[in-house]
Design the sequence.
């Protein structure tokens, strides 16, 4: 049957869903509505290789317009500002109306903003999209002393890139360690040391009291009365799912759009995927919301299958990475439900991994090492987690023993 | 096919099954694999970013990059999973007297 399938949000989950729908349904109309005037592109390089000029805008696109044309997927640059689920309609700012039979919501997430005096609103920069990355890149070329507010993944990646561009970088973090409590303290400390070795200043446990503009530069007053002078400020203080559009509708929201394991929302024929969705994970038997590249891709694909009528459960084990300086950090599974922690390795040059176990089975792991050193073991860990097997802890803890041995075929 | 293009990599028992070794020749890096049905060779650096595949995971006929989990088919070099989208170059391999050779163009 020929349907009108609409995808609201032209990011990673949206494009993967669109192509997967087309694989399974050659007839229906597929339309992506995206407010960025760009074809879907990868965000991870924005804080890394794009700032470092190792990747250009054209390297970031998932697919060329030819691929979309060949697969008969329409992309329209439009911002939707009202939704009528009852009559299956979307309304755009320019009064365009779009009707759908099935809808995928993949509106992603947006950066939290600092609460500041109004006159400073345009002075603090955030990084979520290509336009912001371009602006930051252009402005920092004339700045030297840059302050990053927030020691999460994106803030630290920007700090790493700017340091490699020979900038003096200060990172201010409100918590007692970098990258939040989800990352083992030992790993956060290893990453912190690397930043310090490269000349970045890391300030923990401090809150911003006040920011004052002074002759084009800024003074940041911390709660211990330290005064930091800086010529540019970027904030990376976390993000929230982009759901404002749905707040006064029947769509069930709770830290994002609540979906089941089939990417279905509380409203019939409405699906959600990627950063915006708080989905049920059958393996962990709970809901979770993830902001990661691998998840946006796989969740988009899973939603695409379900929209095309191929009923498919989402069972992907979470995985994400962060690249800072010559380090690669990876996280798999969930690291907050455990009764035992096992450490593998203690030298960042060979990779250090912490495994989180419950009832002798791996639930998640977090590792960091010089580029290339933890990926294989983390990948094997994802497979072991998925298989839900009882693991030999001796092999996990001894870096001389290969983890491949634990995978039974 | 001229003989001198075949470069000796090492002995056949230097690689475990479903594993790989890195092989550097002049200024290039290669990966040489032992799969259940024989030996194969590809470029040693991921096509996504300049990362050595020697630390990657070999599973069935696939090599998975340790950095961002891009996956390539070892036999054809085909990029199978993003973020890798550019194929990996492959090279002919022969075994002679328990020694592995790869043909570099
Ligand atoms: C700087 C940065 C670095 C990152 N680095 C990593 C990394 O190293 N590793 C990793 O695993 N993950 C990383 N991520 C996370 C990863 O990129 C995201 O999880 C992924 O992009 C989410 O995909 P998505 O499709 O859910 O949302 P998005 O890709 O954000 O797409 C959502 C799209 O919907 C559009 N939209 C929203 N509302 C509307 C509307 N009303 N009308 C029309 N369009 C709308 C938005 O403009 C956007 O284009 C990074 C993210 C950022 C921002
Ligand atoms: S470097 Fe290999 S997938 Fe990114």
Sequence:
């Amino acid at each position: 049957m020929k349907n009108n399938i609409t995808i609201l949000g032209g990011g990673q989950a949206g494009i993967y869903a669109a192509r997967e729908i087309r694989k399974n349904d050659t007839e229906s109309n597929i339309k992506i509505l995206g407010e960025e005037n760009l074809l879907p592109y990868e965000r991870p390089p924005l804080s890394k290789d794009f700032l470092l000029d190792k990747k250009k805008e054209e390297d970031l696109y998932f697919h060329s317009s030819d691929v979309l044309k060949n697969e008969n997927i329409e992309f329209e640059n439009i911002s939707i500002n009202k939704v009528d689920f009852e009559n299956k309609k979307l309304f755009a700012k320019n009064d365009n109306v779009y009707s759908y039979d099935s809808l995928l919501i993949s509106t992603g997430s947006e950066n939290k903003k600092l609460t500041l005096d109004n006159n400073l609103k345009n002075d603090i920069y955030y990084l979520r999209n290509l336009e912001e990355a371009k602006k930051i890149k252009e402005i920092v070329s004339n700045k030297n002393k840059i302050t990053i507010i927030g020691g999460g993944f994106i803030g630290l990646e920007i700090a790493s890139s700017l340091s490699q561009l020979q900038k003096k970088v200060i990172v201010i973090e409100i918590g007692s360690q970098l990258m939040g409590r989800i990352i083992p303290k030992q790993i956060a400390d290893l990453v912190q040391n690397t930043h310090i070795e490269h000349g970045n200043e890391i300030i923990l446990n401090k809150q911003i009291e006040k920011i004052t503009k002074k002759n084009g530069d800024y003074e940041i007053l911390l709660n211990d009365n330290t005064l930091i002078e800086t010529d540019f400020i970027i904030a990376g203080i976390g993000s929230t799912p982009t759901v404002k559009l749905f707040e006064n509708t029947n769509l069930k929201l709770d830290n994002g759009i609540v979906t089941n394991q089939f990417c279905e929302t509380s409203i019939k024929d409405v699906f959600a995927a990627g950063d915006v969705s708080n989905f049920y994970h059958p393996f962990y038997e709970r809901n979770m919301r993830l902001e990661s590249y691998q998840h946006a891709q796989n969740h988009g694909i899973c939603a695409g299958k379900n929209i095309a009528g191929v009923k498919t459960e989402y069972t992907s084990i979470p995985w994400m990475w962060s690249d800072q300086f010559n380090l690669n950090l990876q996280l798999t599974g969930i690291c907050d439900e455990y009764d035992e922690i096992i450490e593998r390795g203690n030298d960042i040059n060979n990779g250090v991994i912490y495994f989180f176990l419950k009832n002798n089975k791996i639930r998640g792991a977090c590792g960091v090492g010089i580029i290339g050193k933890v990926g294989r073991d983390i990948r094997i860990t994802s497979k072991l987690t998925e298989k839900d097997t009882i693991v030999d802890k001796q092999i996990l803890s001894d870096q001389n023993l290969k983890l491949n041995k634990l995978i039974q075929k | 096919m001229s003989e001198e293009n075949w470069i000796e990599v090492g002995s056949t028992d230097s690689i475990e099954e479903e594993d790989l070794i890195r092989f550097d020749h002049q200024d290039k890096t290669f990966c040489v694999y032992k799969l259940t049905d024989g030996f194969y060779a590809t470029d040693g650096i991921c096509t996504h970013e300049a990362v050595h595949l020697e630390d990657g995971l070999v599973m069935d006929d696939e090599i998975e990059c340790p950095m961002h989990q891009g996956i390539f088919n070892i036999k054809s070099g085909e990029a199978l999973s993003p973020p890798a989208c550019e194929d990996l170059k492959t090279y002919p391999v022969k075994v002679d007297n328990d020694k592995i050779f790869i043909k570099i163009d």
